[in-house]
Specification:
Number of domains: 2
CATH class of the largest domain: Alpha Beta
CATH superfamily of the largest domain: Type I PLP-dependent aspartate aminotransferase-like (Major domain)
Radius of gyration: 22 Å
Largest sheet: 7 strands, mixed
Helix content: 25-40%
Bound molecules: pyridoxal-5'-phosphate
Distance between the termini: 39 Å
Number of helices: 14
Structural class: alpha/beta
Length: about 450
């Protein structure tokens, strides 16, 4: 066995891959052993080059191989490798990062509690809102409304909020008090099966609140764009209407900006597209561009002050992780955010997002199997259909999303195949440093891929 074969063999025997097929991890093709990354490209151990069309897992915003990030991490580790931030302890990179995030975040979001990822951040947000309402003397306000096809992570609270059935089926019974409303499809509503511009999805939230009793609802959590659920970009006005519903009933709004934060959509945060400020915002992924795990929750100044005022003198906030505000992670995040600002990557996401949108629209014209395209900034999806007029999906046996993924992969483009609700979707979410020419490369590979797939039908 050569080294690669040996690694693959050891991987099969000892490595339980996250969210992956169990019987044979590689039944859709050979294992990809990646060795290095540079810019938007990844290279495997055989030297094959791939365009990282999903910024790895929607997170490598500044691209791969940034030496300056490694230098910052090294310097921080040499100086202060670790300090927790419980009680009276703190350290410079935690303070500066909290201040930086507060300055970037919309509205009066102002105080940050750090975590190590998106799931932990959402669990933290759920516990914070329940704690807040208990302090306010409203212990019955504990229910969290999420949406169908939402993905909020895999810890117990985050899974309970997630609205994708396959994740909910594992590990139940789930946490209580999580309920789900419809997802806002732009062009084909789940309820009315037509383009209702999100009216049914808004109504579904209103109906759920009435059914459950408004005084029992603590928060509504929503991704500004539902990522893992198939890149669902909500119709204009939808998020504003959800904000109005929250205000009407004293319900808190939690924005899950784990994918959409830090420039992904052409704004620092996805909520800004509608000028909406949530009461809490969770983040992870892009805050460090994946160079090191970090996440967090930002809460509004109003909630922050109320929690302080309503707490007794010796009351603690009994929630925090060993690695909340890990010094190396905070230093990396600070450098990463500087890179996003200095290199104008939010602006680039907006400009290149337009190029991508246009290119995908052209592909949709060329290929009958493309039933719908959704995008905002540098996050996009193509939905594949057997019949464009009726939007009839391919039978599950065709595995269209996987076919497109596999063919694109063999041509050197990594995407993400999503099959949900009998719908085949391929998602794109490239690093924010991408150029016009590189988007051209992605589109060319997709064109060749779709030609071959259509020809084989
Ligand atoms: C919107 C959203 N929220 C939360 C999470 C969970 O984040 P993590 O995998 O870091 O726990 C994800 C992960 O993809 C996500 O996309």
């Amino acid at each position: 066995m050569n080294k690669t074969e040996k690694l693959i063999d050891l991987d099969k025997r000892h490595h339980l891959h996250p969210s992956s097929p169990v019987k044979d991890n590689f039944n859709q093709g050979p294992m990809v052993l990646l060795e290095r990354g540079e810019g938007i490209y990844l290279y495997d151990v055989d030297g094959k080059r791939y365009i990282d069309g999903l910024a790895s897992l929607w997170n490598v915003n500044i691209g791969h191989g940034r030496k300056e990030i490694a230098e910052v991490a090294k310097a921080q580790m040499e100086k202060l490798a670790f300090s927790h931030s419980f009680n009276r302890f703190s350290h410079e990179s935690a303070v500066l990062l909290a201040e930086k995030i507060a300055s970037l975040a919309p509205g009066d979001l102002n105080a940050v509690q750090f975590t190590s990822g998106g799931s932990e951040s959402n669990d933290t947000a759920f516990k914070l809102v329940r704690h807040y309402f208990k302090l306010k003397g409203e212990p019955d306000r504990f229910k969290i409304i999420a949406r169908y096809r939402a993905y909020h992570g895999i810890s117990m609270g985050a899974t309970s909020a997630t609205g994708i059935p396959i994740f909910r089926q594992m590990g139940g019974p789930l946490a209580s008090g999580f309920i789900h409303a419809a997802a806002p499809h732009c062009y084909r509503c789940e309820s009315c099966q037509s383009d209702c511009s999100g009216a049914c999805a808004v109504q579904s939230i209103k109906d759920l609140i009435e059914k459950e009793d408004p005084k029992t609802i603590a928060a509504i959590i929503l991704e500004p764009i539902q990522g893992a659920g198939g890149v669902i970009v909500p119709p204009p006005g939808y998020i504003k209407q959800v904000r109005e519903i929250c205000d009407q009933h004293g319900i808190l709004m939690i924005a899950d900006e784990v994918i959409t934060g830090f420039g992904r959509t052409g704004r620092w945060f996805g909520m800004e597209h509608e000028g909406v400020a949530p009461d809490l915002m969770t983040f992870a992924k892009g805050v460090t561009s994946g160079y090191i795990p970090l996440g967090g929750v930002v809460i509004s100044e109003r909630i922050h002050q109320e929690i302080i005022e309503l707490s007794n003198q010796n009351q603690v906030l009994p929630h925090g992780y060993t690695y909340s505000a890990h010094p190396t992670a905070c230093s990396v995040a600070l450098r990463n955010l500087d890179i996003i600002s200095d290199e104008k990557l939010v602006e680039n996401a907006e400009a290149m997002g337009q190029v991508l949108k246009q290119g995908l629209a052209e592909l949709a014209k060329e290929f009958e199997i493309v039933g719908n395209v959704m995008s905002r900034g540098l996050i996009a999806s193509l939905e594949f259909v057997q019949d464009r007029a009726t939007k009839k999906a391919f039978p599950a046996t065709v595995r269209m999303a996987n076919q497109v993924f596999d063919k694109a992969m063999s041509k050197g483009l990594i995407t993400r195949a999503i099959t949900i609700d009998n719908t085949d979707i391929v998602a794109l979410c490239p690093p924010l440093i991408i150029t016009r020419e590189q988007i051209g490369e992605i589109l060319e590979i997709l064109r060749e891929t779709l030609k071959e797939v259509e020809a084989s039908l």
